[in-house]
Amino acid sequence: MAGYILKRLLSAIPVLIGISVIVFLIMAMIPGDPATAILGSYATPENVAALNEDLGLDEPLVTRYFIWLSNMVQGDFGRSFALNRPVLDEVLERFGATLVLAGTAFVLCSVFGIAAGVISAANQYGFGDKAITFVVLLGISIPSFFLGMMMILIFAVNLRWFPVSGMWPIFGDRTIWVLLDHLAMPAIALAVVATGVVARLSRSAMLEVLRQDFIRTARAKGVRENSVIWRHALRAAMVSIIPVLGIQAGFVLSGAVYIEMVFQWPGVGRMLVDAILRRDILLVQGGVVFIAACYVLFNIAVDVAQSLLDPRIKT
Amino acid sequence: MSNFLRLLARNKLALGGLIVMGIVIFFALITPLLPLADPNVTNTADRFQPVFSEGALLGTDHLGRDLLSRLMWGTRLSLAVGFAAAIIAATIGAAIGIIAGYYGGRTDNIIMRGVDMLMAFPYILLALAIVAALGPGLLNALIAVAAVNIPFFARNIRGITVGIANKEFVDAARLAGKSDASIILSEVLPNVIPVIVIAMSTTIGWMILETAGLSFLGLGSQPPVADLGSMLGEARSALITNPHTSIVPGMMILIIVMAINLLGDGVRDALDPRLKSGALSRPMPATRVDRKGPIPEAEGDDLLALRGLETQFHVKDRVYKAVGGVDLNVRPGECLGLIGESGSGKSVTALSVMGLVASPPGVITGGAVYFEGEDLVGAPYSKLRRMRGKRVAYIFQDPLATLHPLYTIGDQLIEAVSCHRPIGKSEGRAHAVELLRQVRIPNAEKRVDSYPHELSGGMRQRVGIAMALANDPEVIIADEPTTALDVTVQAQVLTLLDDLRREKGLAILFITHDFGVVAQLCDRVAVMYAGRIVEQGPTDAILNAPAHPYTSKLMACVPELGEGRRRLEAIPGLPPVVDKLPDGCAFADRCHVATDACRRGEIPLDPLSDKRRVRCIHPVSDPATEAAQ
C-alpha cells in the first residue's frame, strides 16, 4: 500500500510540472513588458529594475520559467504588490476558508448525490425516481450564483434563518456553531450542481450493476432487498462513482469562486477575481498553481481510495 | 436520421426542450426588429420600476434601463457567445483529436499528454487564468471558455478517430494513393461529425453557463453592453431592495440551460441502443406474476413440483414465451436432469421457481410451483426471500460473474447464513471454513479470505456450491454448474454433488445441455425444447431408447469416446423464436419424420409407459408397442 501511494505521488511530479508550464505560458501571453504589467501603478523605474533582477524578467522565457519554478519549490511564490505581502501567505490564509466551504459542499454532494442516485435506481420509473430526476435536472441547470442569490433572498432576508453573508460575524465569538450558521447556505448552493451530476451518474452506475449476475446470486441467497441495493449493488457501483467524485471535487473547488462572490466568503476564489480585476498578476499565478496542485494531490487520494475499495487493482 | 428524429420526438421532455429552445432562439434572432426601448439608454428618474409598470413590461434596472429590452439583447448576446464558444471548442478540439487519432504513435502520445495536463486543472480555474492573462472582456471570456472545453472534445474525437483510422475503407484509400489530408477530409471527417454534434449538444449548456458566470464575476461583458451574466452581476447589489432585477436574467439563464439539457438528454437517450432494448431497466426483487386462467392443483407428495408453469418476456409489444407450460417434480434424494439446447427455456424454468427471473421483462403468466404442497408463485416477496437459499438454493454457471467481485468468499459465505439467522463473527468464519472443506477446497483457512478473482474457475464453482449448501437446503437447483469448467474439474464437481446428495438426501434439479453429465448424475431426465417438455422418464430408459426425434437427434450430437462407429450429427436448422411459435410441434420443421398432423393443434405429453412420457405423435421407438410384440 505504502509503495502504491509513493508510486502515485511520484507520478504526480510530471503532472505538477506540466501544470506549472501551462500557467507560466498563459501568463506569458500578457502583452507588453512583464515588470510593468506586474507592478502596474507601482511601476517606478527603480521598482521595475528591482523586479527584473528578482524574477529574471530580462532573461529568455525558458530561463525565466526555471527561476520561477525553483523559487516556488523553495516556497517563494513572489509578492503581491497591491497587498504588499508574500503571495503564499495570502493564498494559504484564503485557501483555508475555501477548503471549509468546498470541503463541506463536497461531502454534501457525495452523500446526497449517491443517496439520490441509489434511491432513484432502486425505484426506477417510480414516483421517487421521477421526482428525483426532475429535481436533479433543475439542479444541474440552475447557475449556482443565481441559486445563491435566491437563497439569500428567501432564507436570509425573508425568513431570517441564516445570516446574509460572510464567514464570521463582525462582532462576537468565532465558535463552530456560528461558522455552521454562516456556512449552511453557501455550502448548499455550491453543492447543488455537483449533487445533480453525482446523482445522475450514481443512478446509471447502479442500474448497470443491478443487472449483473452477482446481484441475482445475492437474491438467490435470500439477501434482503435493502442489503442487495445498499451493500451489494452500491459497493460495486462505487467503483465507477468514485472517479466522478474526484472530478466533482475539482468542480466545487473552482466553482466556489461564484459562491464566494455571492456570499462574501473570504476564500481564494474571491481573492483571484479581485486580483484579476486589479491585475495583480503574481497573486493570480501563485493562486492558480497552488489550487491546481492541491487538486492533483486530492486526485491521488481518490486513486488510493479506489484501490482500497477494489481488490482487483494491483497495488 | 429520420429514425433518430422520431425517437427524439417520442421523448416528450426533449421535445419540450426543443420547442422552448426554438422560441428563445427565434426571439433572439428577431430582437433587432422588435419595437424595444434602447437597452443602454439610462434614465435615472425611472430607476427600479417594478414589473408590469407603464412602458416597461419587466420594469427597469438601477439605471432606469428597460429590463425587457436588456433581457432580449442580453439573451441574444449570451446565446451568441455560448454557441460561438461551442463551435470554436468543437472545431479546434476535433482537429486536435483527429490528428492525434489518425497519426497515432508519438504524435498521439505528445498531444494526449498535453490534453491530460489541461484536464488536470479544475475547470473554472483555467478559465480564470486565461482571463487574467488576456484581461477582462467578453471576447476574452469567450476564448477562455472555448479553451477549457477543447480537451473534452479532443479526447472524445480522438477515441472515435482511432477506431475509424483502422477500418478497411481508410486502408483502401491509403492504398489508392490518397494523401493524408484528403483521407481525413473525405473518409474520417464525415464519420466524426455526428459525434461532434452530439458532444456539442451536451456541452453547449455548460458553455452558456460558464460565460454567464465569468460575466457575473465582472470578467466578461463590460458595461454598458450586458449579457445575462453581467445583468445578474449588476443586479446583485440591489438584490434585497429590488429582487426582480436579479430574478429576470437569472430565470432566463435557468430556462435556456434547462431546455438545452433536456434536449441533450433526449439526443443521448435516442442514440443509446441499450435504452431501446430495455437493457437499462432494473430487475425487481421478485419476478412479476400475472396469472390468467385456473391454477393447477398439486398432485402427489413431491418435495418440489412445477405444474403448467408459464414464464414470458414482455419486451415492448412482443411476447416471448420462454416457458410454455412445464410440469416437473423432484423427491428428496432424487436428481432430475433438465436438458435442452441454449434458449430452450431451461434456465428460465429454474429461475422461475424462486421468482428470480429478471423482471422487467420477465412475467410468470400461469401455472404453479409447489414446495411441500404450497404454491410459491404469487407468494409475498418476504416469504420467497426467507425460502431462497435456506430451503431452495441455487448454483449458477460462470462463478466469476456470479460471485461479488469486491467481497471475500468468506464474507459471501457468511452472508448466505446471516441473512437467514443471526450468526456471530467467529462462528460464521468457522462455518465458512467448514463449508469450504465440505466442497474439498484445499487450505480452506487461507482461502476463506480470498477474493473471487484470486481463485481458479473450478475453485470458484466449488465456492458457489458451498454457498448453496450453507443453510442445508432441501432442494438445490444447479444451472449448468459445470459448463465453464474443463473435463477433469467437471468430473470432480459432479462427484461432489452426487456425494452430497447421498449424504444429505438433497433433491437436485440439474440443468445441462450435456447428456454425459446427465448419465453420470441423474435418476430421471426431462428434455426441453422451445419452452416445453418434450420427453420425460428414467435416465437409462431415455438414453437407451429415446422416444422423441429431438432427443435422439440431440444424443446423436454427442461424440462417443473410443467408439466412433456412430456418425456425429448436427440438427439442421435453428430452434424457433419463442415469440412466433408455430402451431403444433415446435420441432416439426427440423424433424425428419414430421407429417402434416404434426403442424396442427396441441400435441399432448402422453404417457409412453408408466414412467415415461413423450410429446410426439411419431415416437422413434415405441417401448409400449415393442413390449406388446
Plain-language structure description:
The complex is a heterodimer of chains A (315) and B (629). Chain A is built from twelve helices and two strands. By secondary structure, chain A is mainly α. In chain A, helix 6 packs across helix 8 and helix 7 crosses helix 8. Chain A is globular, with a radius of gyration of 23 Å. The model of chain B is unreliable at 624-629 (pLDDT under 50). Chain B has helices at 2-10, 12-30, 67-103, 105-119, 123-134, 138-165, 168-175, 180-216, 228-235, 244-271, 273-276, 346-353, 381-387, 399-402, 409-418, 425-438, 444-447, 457-469, 487-504, 515-521, 539-544, 549-556, 623-628; strands spanning 288-289, 304-315, 318-330, 335-339, 362-371, 374-375, 392-395, 475-479, 507-512, 524-529, 532-538, 606-607, 613-614. In chain B, the strands form two sheets. In chain B, strands 7-8-9-4-10-11-13-12 form an eight-stranded mixed beta sheet, with helices on both faces. In chain B, strands 1, 2, 3, 5 and 6 form a five-stranded mixed beta sheet that branches. Among the domains of chain B are: 2-31 and 57-275, Orthogonal Bundle (MetI-like fold); 539-628, no CATH class. In chain B, helix 1 (2-10) packs across helix 10 (244-271), helix 3 (67-103) packs parallel to helix 6 (138-165) and helix 16 (425-438) packs across helix 18. Chain B contains 23 helices and 13 strands. Chain B is 49% helix and 12% strand. In chain B, a hairpin with a 2-residue loop joins strand 2 (304-315) and strand 3. By secondary structure, chain B is α/β, with parallel strands linked by helices. Chain B is elongated. Chains A and B meet through helix 1, helix 6, helix 7, helix 8 and helix 9 of A and helix 4, helix 5, helix 8, helix 10 and helix 13 of B.
Outline the secondary-structure elements.
The complex is a heterodimer of chains A (315) and B (629).
Chain A: H1 2-28, H2 34-39, H3 45-55, H4 61-73, E1 79-80, E2 85-86, H5 87-122, H6 127-141, H7 144-158, H8 176-210, H9 213-221, H10 225-262, H11 268-278, H12 281-309
Antiparallel strand pairs in A: 1-2
Chain B: H1 2-10, H2 12-30, H3 67-103, H4 105-119, H5 123-134, H6 138-165, H7 168-175, H8 180-216, H9 228-235, H10 244-271, H11 273-276, E1 288-289, E2 304-315, E3 318-330, E4 335-339, H12 346-353, E5 362-371, E6 374-375, H13 381-387, E7 392-395, H14 399-402, H15 409-418, H16 425-438, H17 444-447, H18 457-469, E8 475-479, H19 487-504, E9 507-512, H20 515-521, E10 524-529, E11 532-538, H21 539-544, H22 549-556, E12 606-607, E13 613-614, H23 623-628
Parallel strand pairs in B: 1-5, 4-9, 4-10, 7-8, 8-9
Antiparallel strand pairs in B: 2-3, 2-5, 5-6, 10-11, 11-13, 12-13
Helix pairs in contact in B: 1-10, 2-3, 2-10, 3-4, 3-6, 3-8, 3-10, 4-6, 5-6, 6-8, 7-8, 8-9, 8-10, 9-10, 15-16, 15-18, 16-18, 18-19
